[in-house]
Amino acid sequence: MTRCLSEILKRSQPWLRARFLPSLTVALLTTLATRADEVRIQLVSAITNENAKAQVALIDQLSTSTNSIVAQTLTTWRQGGVYIYEFSDDKKTPFFADTVTDADGKVRGIQISNGEPVRDASGQVVLFAPSELTAADTTSGLRKAIKTSLDILALSNPNPNVRRDSAAKLGLEQNPVYLNGFRAHLESEKNPEVRKALQEAIAITDLVSSEKSIQLTALKTLDDLRSVMGLDAVMKLETASKEKIPELSAEAAIARRHIQQHIAFSNFLGTLFRGLSLGSVLLIAAIGLAITFGLMGIINMAHGEMIMIGAYSAYVMQNIFLKAFGPGAAAFNWYFVAALPFSFLTAGLIGMLLERSVIRFLYKRPLESLLATWGVSLVLQQTMRVIFGAANVQVDSPAWLSGNVNYQDVVLAYNRIFVVVFAVGIVLFTWLLLTKTSLGLQVRALMQNRQMAACMGVRADRVNMATFAFGSGLAGMAGACLSQIGNIGPSLGQSHIVDCFMVVVLGGVGNLQGTVSAALGIGVTDQVLQPHLGAVMGKITVLTAIILFLQWRPAGIFATRGRGLEG
Predict the structure, then answer these.
(1) Are 373 and 358 within 8 A, CB to CB?
(2) How far apart are CA 104 and CA 102, in angstroms?
(3) Which band of pLDDT confidence, cut at 50, 70 and 90, is reported for residue 566?
(4) Which is it for the CA torsion 7, 8, 13, 19, positive or negative?
């Protein structure tokens, strides 16, 4: 009602708003106040009524109210915190005890009917000692009715996730007393996820009906919805009715098969999505390694430590924002936006320093570069242990990367969606850099024929330094992305360096297209195999498959060709 009034006023002329807005506002507030008073009066009647059946009926009516005083009062009443003050035999006032006591330990009473202090016949505020408080009576039937109403009131929560979870929880109880509440809320519910949860709750509850037609309709509903939540109830009904009602058991079996097929397909899609996100992280980390390996012939075992440095850079940026704005501030949620370029610059600068101090003396010497960079990786790991400690550190996801979207029972986490989209952006940026800039032209020239490119005026040292810094920076951003998926520790890079080299070798050294294909292929295959073979055997199987493939195609999926290469 308020929203409709607001839209009408926005679209109206200024003179119309000026003339009618005050009166409309007064009318609206009066209406809302009247409704609130009616709810309070109904609560008072439910508490003071001496007829148990009438009390239960009034409580049931209150279960569809959206006024917060209803849940507060019913909860307190059920716990014995609602008291009665009697002016006379025919006038009783229910109230809450105030939380503030005076010097004598007495408290005021707050009337449920209007929120005002309890007063005696002369208008004086009444103070109650603990021994003078008389609790409103409740019976087991009344407490049961209050619990039912409180359960249904949770379906009116402003948070749709709470409403959805409450509908799911109550539906699994298969208690027919909730059916009217489910149907009443289904009529007014707009959120599609909550609507589906309410439809499932109604159908699951109808499965325990004594009428076969209602049970068949419920099975059809659960089948159409592919209700994962209703699978256990359907299987239970199939078993229970197998001998007594074969027709019902057959329909339950059909619904069960359809739901199980839906679950298997949803799990498969979820696995593919997790593999895609893992492959995206590998892709970001491996792009730089593929370029530098193809350009310089360096086996950089310290590339994994660039991933680790990027992850710790995100942790440092989180702490900077935490101290500057506090954990609850809206600005804190933007720390990850700052962490991405910060991790790129930090890892890039360390990579540049590594290239100038160690790598440039080891071009085209793979064995020496492997040993030297392995030593550098150990130094970097120990440095991080000294600075941040040996234990893992936690990077919290910002609000806009927290949570997930559920599509057809496939859970898509926002942080993983971001990693995939970010990887696409990195690939596009790298492709533009290699194909549309002078630096990219020089990089490709050096990869094809270093001596000829040097004769044409390409300054190999500068190109090597810039390329190595760029590749290290990409690894740093991959580490920042990893910080949103798991914990960070000094050995983070070691768990990914082997996968990165597998991507480079399988895709074809220095080939962007091959790197993309290999990263996504390894990531998806690893996630598909893990549920069946386990984490260790899954990786062993992937590695074995790569070795066998390279026996057939030693140059990888896309072999790099150039004037300085054969074939």
Answers:
(1) yes
(2) 5
(3) very low
(4) negative
Residue in the block written with tokens 């936006």: 337
Residue 20 binned pLDDT confidence (cut-offs 50, 70, 90): very low
| CATH class in words for 81-135 | mainly beta
Q: Tell me the whole-structure pTM to 2 decimals.
A: 0.70
**The 91-101 sheet, strands edge to edge:** 82-88, 91-101, 107-111, 127-128
Residue of 518, 551, 514, 545 whose CA lies nearest to 529: 545
Q: Where are the domains of the chain?
A: 81-135, 157-244, 276-493
Beta-bridge partners for 481: none
Token pair 């989180």 is at which residue? 318
Cβ neighbours of residue 78 under 8 Å, at least 6 residues apart?
A: 138, 143, 146, 147, 150
Give the chain's end-to-end CA distance (angstroms, integer): 75
Checking 529-538 for CB contacts under 8 A at 24+ apart, the result is: 531/271
Would you give the DSSP letter of residue 562? -
Q: Which of 482, 372, 340, 376 is closest to 499 using CA atoms?
A: 482
CA dist., res. 248 & res. 213, Å (int): 9
Amino acid at 413: A
Tokens 């003396």 found at: 361
pLDDT confidence bin for 28, thresholds 50/70/90: very low
Q: Strand (E) positions, 59-174?
A: 82-88, 91-101, 107-111, 127-128
| 28 neighbors 2 (Cβ within 8 angstroms) | yes
CA 188 to chain CA centroid, Å, is: 27
Tokens of 274: 């997790």
Q: Which of 59, 52, 47 is nearest to 92 (CA)?
A: 47
The length of the chain, given as a count of residues? 567
Q: Cβ neighbours of residue 29 under 8 Å, at least 6 residues apart?
A: none
Q: What is the mean pLDDT of the chain?
A: 82
Q: What's the whole-number mean pLDDT along residues 474-496?
A: 86
**Locate tokens 């103070």: which residue?**
127
In Å, how far are 167, 250, 399 from 403, measured between CA atoms?
20, 39, 8
User: What is the 3-state secondary structure of 416-462?
Assistant: HHHHHHHHHHHHHHHHHHHHHCHHHHHHHHHHHCHHHHHHCCCCHHH
Q: Counting Cβ atoms within 10 Å, is residue 469 exposed (0-12), middle (13-18) or buried (19+)? A: buried
Give whole-number Cα distances, 500 to 280, 308, 547, in Å.
Answer: 11, 14, 15
* Residue of 307, 491, 486 lying closest to 381 (CA atoms): 491
Give CA–CA dist 506/557, Å, rounded.
6
Task: Give the confidence band of 36 by pLDDT, cuts at 50, 70, 90.
Answer: low
